[in-house]
Design a protein that fits this description.
309 residues; alpha/beta; Rossmann fold; 7-stranded parallel β-sheet; 9 helices; 12 strands; 17% strand; binds NADPH dihydro-nicotinamide-adenine-dinucleotide phosphate; binds oxalic acid
């Protein structure tokens, strides 16, 4: 039984160590792999080169290092009959919830304004708005969106969410489908995007959508860069329709040096770190799933590639 690891940055070693510690029977190889492709049973990958995974004829499952699987779904040569498993594990969820709560509070407490005032050496109070007078709206009520909303309840915001299928979540006004979007947006003061990137969600955060939010709303995008029309965001920020944006994901990553976001005073941004998979924690989810399959049980968190998530 062998697993091939292809991750970004230098997490290869951390994954190898974690897998060896939790599952010594599983042989691990790190990419690039020049052994016999037929020996590889499993792949644990982040952004593998297109066409790479079709080289392994005996793959039994492909595990995404991240929750998003757009990096796999966009491979036209992805082996069609191999299940793709997204990352669902408590560490990744906790990291995202921390980031979302932090970002919502940043906008709620006018931190972009206070940062600007500080640069200008201005000492001035901005009248505070009560949390219960603001609605946080979550695009995407999946594993990550729901956990963030649950933790946000502690602050007394009005909470709303939008998903593809109908949902019922205590304390959250739920909307769904294209027909439910406008009403959801009309009441949302701080919009968080935690949607997967699919044909339906690409370019969703655009001029028309911003115009449907109350004037002065804030936008937090932690889904995928392909969901945001960047020039429309700049226009909405410059006109005052939006008061600020927190961005963690971009159409091009790393963000090009000459991109206007770098200098924009109403943009707070981070380099796609909202939640990072930590091998020592996430290894349990991968090992448990392989053990399930080896025991003849069904894999958990297999994505529907036709749906795109
Ligand atoms: P899930 O698959 O658990 O949830 C996805 C949610 O999006 C579901 O509620 C789904 O609706 C909804 N959705 C999908 N398509 C549509 C649509 N067309 N219209 C309305 N709602 C839709 O995903 P996760 O919560 O685990 O992750 C969400 C995304 O977060 C990932 O795909 C990834 O892109 C991003 N992410 C970003 C990270 C970062 O560091 N920036 C880290 C981790 C994830 P329904 O419930 O009806 O199916
Ligand atoms: C993910 C990510 O999808 O880090 O997990 O973007």
């Amino acid at each position: 039984m062998a697993l091939l690891i292809k991750t970004d940055i230098d997490r290869g070693n951390a994954w190898t160590e974690a897998l060896n510690a939790h599952y010594p029977e599983l042989k691990t190889y790190t990419w690039p792999y020049d052994g016999d492709p037929a020996k590889i049973d499993y792949a644990l990958v982040w952004q593998p080169p297109k066409g790479e995974l079709k080289r392994y004829p005996n793959l039994r499952a492909i595990f995404s290092v991240g929750a998003g699987i757009d990096h796999l779904a966009s491979d036209p040569e992805l082996p069609p009959n191999v299940p793709v498993v997204r990352m669902v594990e408590p560490g990744l969820t906790a990291g995202m919830t921390q980031y979302v709560v932090l970002s919502v509070l940043n906008h709620h407490r006018f931190m972009l304004d206070y940062a600007a005032q500080r640069r200008a050496k201005v000492w001035e109070e901005i009248p505070q708005i009560a949390a219960e007078a603001r609605q946080v709206g979550m695009l995407g009520l999946g594993v990550l969106g729901r956990d963030a909303l649950e933790k946000l309840r502690a602050f007394d915001f009005k909470l709303a969410g939008w998903s593809r299928s109908p949902k019922s979540i205590t304390g959250v006004t739920c909307f769904h489908g294209p027909a439910g979007l406008d009403e959801f947006l009309a009441g949302t003061d701080i919009l968080v995007c935690l949607l997967p990137l699919t044909a339906e969600t690409a370019d969703l955060l655009n001029r028309d959508l911003f115009a449907k939010l109350p004037a002065g709303a804030a936008v937090i995008n932690v889904g995928r860069g392909g969901q945001l029309v960047e020039e429309d965001l700049i226009e909405a920020l410059d006109s005052g329709q939006l008061s600020g944006a927190t961005l963690d994901v971009f159409r091009q990553e790393p963000l090009p040096e000459d991109h206007p976001f770098w200098e924009h005073p109403r943009v707070f941004m981070t380099p796609h770190i909202a939640s990072m998979t930590i091998p020592s924690s996430a290894v349990r989810a991968v090992v448990a799933n392989i053990q399930r399959l080896e025991a003849g049980e069904a894999l958990q968190h297999v994505v529907d590639l036709k749906r795109g998530y």
